[in-house]
Amino acid sequence: MSTHPGDGAAPPAAVELHGITKRFPGVVANHDINIAVGAGTVHAIVGENGAGKSTLMKTLYGMHQPDEGTIAIAGSTVQLNSPSEAIKQGIGMVHQHFMLADNLTVLENVVLGAEHLHGIGAKARATITRLSAQYGLGVEPGRLMEDLGVGDRQRVEILKVLYRGARIIILDEPTAVLVPQEVDELFDNLRELKQEGLTVIFISHKLDEVLSVADDITVIRRGTTVATVDPANTTARELATLMVGGQLPVPELRESTVTDRVVLELADVTVESAQDRTVVDGVNLAIRAGEIVGIAGVEGNGQSELIEAVMGMRPAAKGRITLDGTDITGWQTRAIREAGVGYVPEDRHRHGLLLESPLWENRVLGHQTQRPNAKGPLIDRAGARADTQRIVEEFDVRTPGIDVQADALSGGNQQKLIVGREMSGSPKVVVAAHPTRGVDVGAQAAIWDHLRAARAQGLAVLLISADLDELIGMSDTLYVILRGRLVAEADPRSVTPEQLGSAMTGAGLDPRAANGNDAATENEAGA
Amino acid sequence: MIKSLPAPAGIAVAALSAAAVTFLLDLALLAPAALAIGVALAFAVPLLAVGSDAEDATTGIHRLLVTPIALVLSVLVALLAAIVLDLWLIEPVAYPVGAAAGGAVAVLLYRRLPTQLALAFGAVAAAGVLALGITALVLLATGVEVLHTFERMLNYGSQPNSVVQILNTGTTYYLSAVAVAIGFKMKLFNIGVDGQYRLAALLAAAVGGAFVLPPVLHQIVIITVAVAVGGFWAGIAGWLKVTRGVSEVISTIMLNAIATGVTAYLLNTNRLAVELGTNNIGTRPIAESGWVPGIPAGFMGATRPIFGLVLLAVAVGVGYWWMLNRTRFGFELRATGQSATAAQASGVNVKKMVVLSMVISGMVAGLVGMPQLLGSSHYYALDFPLGLGFTGIAIALLGRNHPVGIAAAALFWAFLDQSSQILDIDGIPKEIAVVTQATMVLTIVVVYELVHRWGRRYQQRQVGRELGREKVAAS
Fold this sequence. Notes:
heterodimer; A: alpha/beta; Rossmann fold; 6-stranded mixed beta sheet; B: mainly alpha; 2 domains; disordered C terminus
């Protein structure tokens, strides 16, 4: 830890986690985690989706208690029973999803829930202005939240934490929602915080970012810490090896099953947001039977909107979507699903499940007009229940029965149920958004297996993922999306995650394939 | 313990033993006491010889919770059955038969009652005790003798004429609460049931009074008009919500006010109304061909008949249950209520769903005035009952939007309404019933939410336990 603003005698670590173990039913939680975070450093914690990073941070933030192990803050052991106790200990957390009220001002958002500190008036405003200047955040207290961009919102979240007196700031995947310039700005902010003596814990699975900003990097794999390394003496490749280890299943397609028959075709599809901003810009795409087409991109570059347009949940402003020769542009979601399009949504809690309904009713969801779930206008309970039982067995959903509520299951098992459901009734196309996000390793391998098997039988898959290994390993054809446009086509057999990552930020793939959007779209328009 | 007895045999044994014990004890004790002991003894049959089907039957919580609740419920069922049978049969026969029913129910409940449902019953009981306790405190504070008051209410409320009145009021309340509940299932707050039923009743009464049609057809026409008007009036709020984004809470409240104005305008002798004696005007009375005859209640000693349309309320209840649980439409309605985003992703047209459920809610609301109109008053006048829509909101909350729960809540509400009438004579403020009603709604909402959360955590633990067992077995 050579980057300490050292003052001779080694100070105690700002945070020391020792032997932390946390058990949950059916998920990779944490076991025997040991991390020491030096005061005044940026400490990155990296690991794959589902490796247990978030669980660990929730433990540190007092959202749940570890089953074993101790947490020490500045040398003294503490018991954190709630986030408010964590805040009292000077620990603050910036969540991946912002927790801000759009219709309030920056000032109001910051003081909300912390009114006892500096009131809600001039004193609070002065404090915010002072903090903003001190840490170079550039936050204006009078602005309305809905007028702010993503990067500004994130700075407000950081300011909220500072306002509450945090000296240790946890950032959970802060770059997932940012465009590259915003990422750079964020990193400048982090360096500023460090200079002021604050400690930053930075959760990520993006190796380049971690290498550029962190003073120390701890790698978590399958719920436990495998190594703490110095970024000066390591490479992205070494980190990646540490992250995935030797035993992790690698997504991999064996022989190609791609046929000539185009099942889903998008021609010049353009989607506009509610504010008339173009979020998907002239996308041309063709997926053939037995083919998996992957789309790589930093989140927020139009992937979600593209999928919603395909599913009929969002109107396409321009262009044509064709399913098996039939023009389905402008169809209702119901009709599109009935025509044979399965949908694994990116946010399973918002779009994929009825959390307070039993599993068998969740089997019906999305397929409520089709056999075996329905007979005419009636729900076929017996048929749906029997088929749910089949999915539970075939897809290895770990549950005591099909009458338990969906929210009693772990994320991986919920996802297996969804994948099982969407693969039922022999669909022609499955639109899969982040099919293995937040899913434990075993479930991940199982989901990949099922996708492969369905592909071999002629299924066409549109795959969107933030996991570049998954994209490279699972796709037959791979595109990069940036600001709503398909800017590059990559060959999944030869491309590396690093190349893909650079293409996602707009730097281009490599001289061979970096002809930009026009080349990619023209190639496909002819297909 | 022998747990080998098959269920049908268990039911038979329990029923017979309950009946026999009750019959014998009836010779020595008061009939209800004999019955309670009989059923309690019969309860040993499932406990010892049949066992439970539940997945969590071996857990402490199941033993602690399901067993006593099943016991209390079966005694209650037996008591109710016996009291009803007692109206026809002589006591030594009625009570053993009631006990037999209780014994049979005991076996079924013990075998089948899921922990979650048992929790719900427990929650209702706890809320009831709390509400009664608060009422007792209020009575104490005002210097009224508590037990005496409750006794008077119980006595008066169980008189035959009161029972008929409770059934009749309960019928109206039930329809109103189901109308509200349909909206609640969609997370829509139809505050406008009040305006919907008043407008529907007025127009239906006017149409019914204007023509004389053959019986059956006449009633069908009147009810159809009421349903159409109610559905249309509520549909306005649904349409405003999906096209203009107007909150249905605001639009239905406003539509209530408009309905009041429209009703007042139409209920004028120049328009739909005629003079009905001094100081009262109303629509032209409906000819007898349009009446719905009452169910004579002489068998239980009442002089007034039960509304014939109580059967309509039963049909609406069954229809509501069937629609929610058996049809695709009901599934989509519940799905939309639980998560509009998930419903949309599943292919539900959420906007259409909002309009449809509002219209259906309004159609049921249109029925609210029918038992009174066709069964008793036969015209819509200034004295037509008001405010039923708001009572319906409270009852839907109390009944947790469940068709059976709403029925129990409606009858309970009507019981408090009716039994408190006697208190005026004793110089006790009858508003005490309103206190009980209100505290009941509050306590049940709070207690139920607590129990619901606890139940969810319990289920998650069950899942965890199951997985733990699997892991041990695998390793």
